[in-house]
Amino acid sequence: MHNRRSFDWDDLKPFLAVARAGSTLGAAKLLGVSQPTVQRRIAALEKSLDCQLFERHPSGYRLSASGAELCTCAEQIEKAVDDFNRQVQLHNGRLSGAIRVTCPEPLASAIVAPIIGAFKRQQPDVCIELLVTDLALDLASGEADIAIRAYETAPHRESESTLIQRKIGEAPWAVYASRIYVERYGKPSSIEEVSRHAIVASDGTAFNTPAARWLQNQAPDAVVSARSSGLLGLLNLVKAGAGLALLPVGLCERDPDLVRVLDPSPPLIASFYLLMHPDLRSTPRFRTFFDFFVSEFRLYRSVPRDEAPGQRSRG
């Protein structure tokens, strides 16, 4: 009786590569080896199994009847090996794969990028794509995987009602002007006086935000000196002396060029939410990043702004 030797997973890699590519040349390109190496390993595997795996044709290699049956088994082994490797990565704390994170522009550099950097130091094999936009990308349709957004209340869009939601913080807003503007025109002593000043108004996608509506309601007769569809645009126009605008306190309070002139009454507060589609919850890299971001965002609120998240001693 023929004595079949045992083989390891590596013996099956050229077999699957030839089956998928239809030729030893194509398989060599897939595996990054030479064509003679593939031909030699296929011949050795067939000898070991005492079975012809392929039928050789001028147009290439075709699976034999026995080869087709064994190919199905080999694909199952390949999947099992992949699953095993993923579990090993999880056990060792090493994850891999891609994550697409979306957030508004003002949060990107100040908060989100530092937290991503801290995560990458722990999980260097995870590739994170940061999608910076004021548009609310649709997680349900796969436009992004995880989103950081601000709302006056909990996420309310129908497409977001089934998402995993975690409130991670709050941001008060106030009316700001540049020091140049205040020196030239003074500042309002009450909300009623805002209408006597030039304002910088929101436009485009930001037109119906709570901040934009508050300013429109409180100062309907004010002269609109400039408009911007983005928060950073509003900030830069205010800093240039174009007028007053309602802006996040956390974004402006430490800016030496800005003066906080009024606080809305009652207070206007936006809440930060972290969102993820529930289908991603069982995938380790998404779940790990989601939990890490929640933890680091809390840490971020408790440390000086010039100290990056993930660098503070937890001892």
Write up this protein:
The protein is an alpha/beta fold. The protein has 3 domains: 9-91, Orthogonal Bundle (Arc Repressor Mutant, subunit A), CATH 1.10.10.10; 97-168 and 273-301, Periplasmic binding protein-like II (D-Maltodextrin-Binding Protein, domain 2), CATH 3.40.190; 170-269, D-Maltodextrin-Binding Protein, domain 2, CATH 3.40.190. Helices cover 41% and strands 23% of the residues. The chain has helices spanning 9-21, 24-31, 35-49, 65-91, 105-122, 179-185, 210-218, 231-239, 249-252, 284-301; strands spanning 54-57, 60-63, 97-103, 126-132, 146-151, 164-178, 198-202, 223-228, 245-248, 258-262, 269-276. The strands form 3 sheets. Strands 3, 4, 5, 6, 9, 10 and 11 form a 7-stranded mixed β-sheet that branches. Strand 3, helix 5 and strand 4 (126-132) form a beta-alpha-beta unit. Helix 1 (9-21) crosses helix 2 (24-31), helix 1 (9-21) crosses helix 4 and helix 5 crosses helix 10 (284-301). It is rod-shaped and about 95 Å long.
Element layout with pairings:
Layout: H1 9-21, H2 24-31, H3 35-49, E1 54-57, E2 60-63, H4 65-91, E3 97-103, H5 105-122, E4 126-132, E5 146-151, E6 164-178, H6 179-185, E7 198-202, H7 210-218, E8 223-228, H8 231-239, E9 245-248, H9 249-252, E10 258-262, E11 269-276, H10 284-301
Please, what is the average pLDDT?
Answer: 81
CATH architecture of the largest domain: 3-Layer(aba) Sandwich
Number of strands: 11
The percent range for strand residues is 15-25%
Per DSSP, the total helix count is: 10
| Element-level helix/strand string | HHHEEHEHEEEHEHEHEHEEH
Whole-Å distance between the termini? 67 Å
Rg value? 30 Å
Number of individual domains: 3
Instruction: Tell me roughly what share of residues is in helical segments.
Output: 40-55%
Shape: rod-shaped
Biggest sheet, open or closed, and with what strands and sense? 7 strands, mixed
Which CATH class of the largest domain applies here? Alpha Beta
